[in-house]
Amino acid sequence: MRYSPPRQRTPGFTLIELLVVIAIIAILISLLVPAVQKVRESANRTECLNNMKQLALAALNYEVSNQHLPPGAINSAAGRALFPNGNRSVLVFLLPYVEQQALYDKLDFGDAKTQKNWCDPVNKAAYQTPLKVFRCPSTPNIMTDTGSNGSGSWNDAATSDYNALCNIGLTNSAYSTGLIPFVYTSKTAKGMLSVNEKVKMRMVVDGTSNTLLLVEDAGRPLRYNATGKQIGTGVSGAAWANEDGYFDLHGAKPDGSQPGPCAVNCSNENEIYGFHPAGATVSFGDGSAKLLERTISIAAAAAILTRAAEDPVPPLP
What we know:
Helices cover 27% and strands 15% of the residues. By secondary structure, the protein is α+β, with helices and mostly antiparallel strands.
């Protein structure tokens, strides 16, 4: 009988060992993904703040060149008399100051005899041009906008996540509930960037460091609520050149309905809104930019919006 030496066991994993390794890898991935997302959001927020600061400095450089701030928008005969000739947004005025002089030169607003608005067919190539400085990288769906208003109609217009917050909505029910205790008038409710007006720096008596200049309203024309869930479409003012891009402060409820006590991140239907978990980016009249926390009260938001109400500014969160 021949002797056969015992077979040596081939090194390898048992099924149980393999399952343990897979489980460990799964746990590590589950721990790593939130960390990666957090780092990504931190980078996005930094870029968004940088965009906001660039736009704020552009507005201040415009003021230096023209001895008044750019208008929140042009949408009336009175505005067109001050800023000939067609309807357009505040962002149009900022183009030369964010290194977009060539794009600005492509826009034709007509002359004293012929008014051409931003969405005139001659401006199609310009208004369809997307600009990185107008977009927040945290916004999940960067879209174009198609629609119409009193200026005309447009299609596939490039959008912006930033614009002017011009007034306090004086019909806000927050007055009757006591959420806004300070009494504002149609004059004192105005912000730094007023529609169809030339606002001079000396008119900002509340102080530039206490007064909002531009704010984030991300995601338009889609509509979102406090959970970041898309709840509809058709929010106006999405196109960066659209004179309907500016808006007033009304506040919202967490479900996105308006008005309400929430000033930040409850609705992007022409309210302050960003896709940053902690709040939305804003800039102030001194050129600074910060994240306005979602816990800010609507009374505090109203106080930092106004330029000459001489209203007390509570400590911001």
